[in-house]
Amino acid sequence: MAKSLLKTSSLSGRTKLLHQTGLSLYSTSHGFYEEEVKKKLQQFPGGSIDLQKEDSGIGILTLNNPSKMNAFSGVMMLQLLEKVIELENWTEGKGLIVRGAKNTFSSGSDLNAVKSLGTPEDGMAVCMFMQNTLTRFMRLPLISVALVQGWALGGGAEFTTACDFRLMTPESKIRFVHKEMGIIPSWGGTTRLVDIIGSRQALKVLSGALKLDSKYALHIGMVEEVLQSSDETKSLEEAQEWLKQFIQGPPEVIRALKKSVCSGRELYLEEALQNERDLLGTVWGGPANLEAIAKKGKFNK
């Protein structure tokens, strides 16, 4: 019955964006020409985006450009999209940790690329490219955590908001410095920040270019927890242990839960309920469900 309902469901355009991979917010109808943007970004090399996939179902995505505080070069922006596509197709994955190399998260965009892409048209094109990428990242069926070590500045601060959760080391700081650069966040950071801490707090953080230390970030709800260690290796281990409590169980169940939460956040009520129903059809009567019923009979506290 559930499978037949799934086949006959009528999906809206917004719902299809959540169901299908590879779909972007912007297209040529918006004046966005992806291949042209990619050619421009390719002109600015430096650094890399590294992905390690663990047997535990946790991926570790590392922003690796330590000589520039892990600033995003053009090539790194392209590689981020490539890694997102790879993660969209990682069916065994359940969780993801995003961190920066050498105990620093990211200082945002590489200024060499920013200076060379100085026209409003260039700015809009990169804006649409990164909004596309980070929206796809946000919709990944993986529970994601930003591990903030050192500084997360500008675009780096924006990237943290694309993760489901944020953890900070004791000495780390998050700062949206865009106002001091004469711009506003353009990778979707404002929209996501409002969702995380509310419009009043977001306005304070952005207009004041506030330095959010770990204590203040925890106070306003920007982060979930302040870790014990500032050591690069130990803090990663802490983040992995923190994440493991939320990804226990079969990948298909964790991934369906994440998709369901995404639909609840992004869709109208009726569409979200329909999407929740359709996702249920992918796990009800499945191996994990039948095994749990056989073991427990019913849930006991």
From TrEMBL:
Q: Give the CC-aspect GO terms.
A: cytosol
Q: What is its EC number?
A: 4.1.1.94
Q: Where in the cell is it found?
A: Cytoplasm, Cytosol
Q: What Gene3D superfamilies has UniProt attached to this entry?
A: 2-enoyl-CoA Hydratase, Chain A, domain 1 (3.90.226.10)
Pfam families, alphabetically?
ECH_1
**Chief location:** cytoplasm
The secretion signal range is none
Please list the GO biological process terms of this entry: fatty acid beta-oxidation
InterPro entries, per the entry: ClpP/crotonase-like_dom_sf, Enoyl-CoA_hyd/isom_CS, Enoyl-CoA_hydra/iso
Q: Name one GO molecular function term.
A: methyl/ethyl malonyl-CoA decarboxylase activity
Q: Keywords on this record?
A: Cytoplasm, Lyase
Keyword Cytoplasm recorded:
yes
Write out the catalysed reaction. (S)-methylmalonyl-CoA + H(+) = propanoyl-CoA + CO2; (2R)-ethylmalonyl-CoA + H(+) = butanoyl-CoA + CO2; (2S)-ethylmalonyl-CoA + H(+) = butanoyl-CoA + CO2
Question: What PANTHER family does its record include?
Answer: ENOYL-COA HYDRATASE-RELATED, ETHYLMALONYL-COA DECARBOXYLASE
Its function? Decarboxylates ethylmalonyl-CoA, a potentially toxic metabolite, to form butyryl-CoA, suggesting it might be involved in metabolite proofreading. Acts preferentially on (S)-ethylmalonyl-CoA but also has some activity on the (R)-isomer. Also has methylmalonyl-CoA decarboxylase activity at lower level.
Report the family membership.
Belongs to the enoyl-CoA hydratase/isomerase family.
**Descriptive protein name:** Ethylmalonyl-CoA decarboxylase
Q: Which organism is it from?
A: Cercocebus atys (Sooty mangabey)
Q: What is the lineage of its organism?
A: Eukaryota, Metazoa, Chordata, Craniata, Vertebrata
The gene is ECHDC1
